[in-house]
Automatic annotation (TrEMBL):
Coiled coil: none annotated. This is Putative RNA-binding protein, YhbY family. The lineage of its organism: Bacteria, Pseudomonadati, Pseudomonadota, Betaproteobacteria, Burkholderiales. Keywords: RNA-binding. InterPro entries: RNA-binding_CRM, RNA-binding_domain, RNA-binding_YhbY, YhbY-like_sf. Gene3D superfamilies: YhbY-like. Residues 2-98 form the CRM domain.
Amino acid sequence: MLKLTPAERSALRAEAHGLSPVVMIGESGLTESVMKEIAASLDAHGLIKVRVFGDDREARVGMYEQISAELDAAPVQHIGKLLVLYRPKKEVAKERSSKSGKGMREVTIVKASASGTKKPSVTKVMIKGNERVTAGGNIKRAKPRQTSSKKTSLNK
């Protein structure tokens, strides 16, 4: 189980205040699938709230301690049926392609509606390395490099 100083715990409680519960524990209790979901949420967010639907306070405290011990998470706060847990996010190194700026890449284009009252349109488009997306959401090819007419006549 991860240990926190009182100052760290206080800061995490303040940060968790605006969060909504991401995992709900129902009447079947703390199952393997619920533990997997809590672990995935901790990996993604670091600080999460868990809501327990059950009236037995001792069972909630037991679940809180079990989650903290099994997932190596720090218990931050337990108020009523809400449990707040913290575990530092795992840093995942994103792999980059060896070629920078070449090849196809996926771009999401969001265009506002013409009237402004409807939802914006969202499209995912594959663009080539020599293309770019303008501020208006249009795809333009990069202009070919300009060459000097003097240099081309000298090389001939």
